[in-house]
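Lab notebook: predicted structure, single chain.

Context: the supervisor wants predicted structures on file for every construct in the current expression panel, including those that have not yet been purified. This is the next one on the list. No modifications to the sequence; it matches the entry in the shared construct table.
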Amino acid sequence: MPEETEQTEKTEKTTPKPVRKKRTVKAEEKRHDPLHVPYFDAAGEQQGELALPKTIFAERPNVAVMHQAYVRQVANARQGNASTKTRATVSGGGAKPYRQKGTGRARHGSIREPSMKGGGKVFGPKPRDYSQRMPRQMRRLALRSALSQKAIDGQVRVIEAFGFEEPKTGAAANLLETIGFDNTTLIVLPAPNLVISRSFENLPTSKIVLARNMNIRDLFTYTYLLLAKDSIELLVENFEKRSRIGGKHEHDHDDEHEEEVAK
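Prediction complete. Output recorded below exactly as produced.
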């Protein structure tokens, strides 16, 4: 037994330990800068990359503010006109349905009381206002957070322009396929364009929105974000972080458009 233990100790000493190879990181595996996104021309061919403005797309995502902004927009879209009648407002019920005793049934005094069929509703909904208020700076922070999260996830693309001479749904679908979108897409335009809108409106996986009407609900609903190059400047003008010193900004008109989108 002692000889065997000595031999095993010798073999353990003589056997070399495996050398760990240093992990080499390829250039392709390095983390890509989220502010540099693919840039496409009107035909859908990639023309390199475009740097997004840090004032909008370099915000640290704030999940709590994004959730509050989403709940606010959904609540503001509610009409709040549901209404039910109580036993005081339901018509009929003036006479006692049957005599007090001798029937073996409950003692009812009106056919419009809540326990009767066709009677009034107890604690039913009444018209109310579901709208919520949220500070302007928080709304802008929520949008910047959502846009920054899109950039971090690699879901932002920029296109130079749309080369549609006339409305063509097939051309719009081919453009999205050429760019490489495999899911829903939110297309951001700087100004209304009837030809572009008519081209994309029949595609169930895409939606057109103006840069000034950018909202948190659409950003959460659609996976990819296709920005027209001219709309980036409008996003900066409307949603960048501004200090309160110096009064109201010249382009400070996003509140009206947010209320229109919420309704």
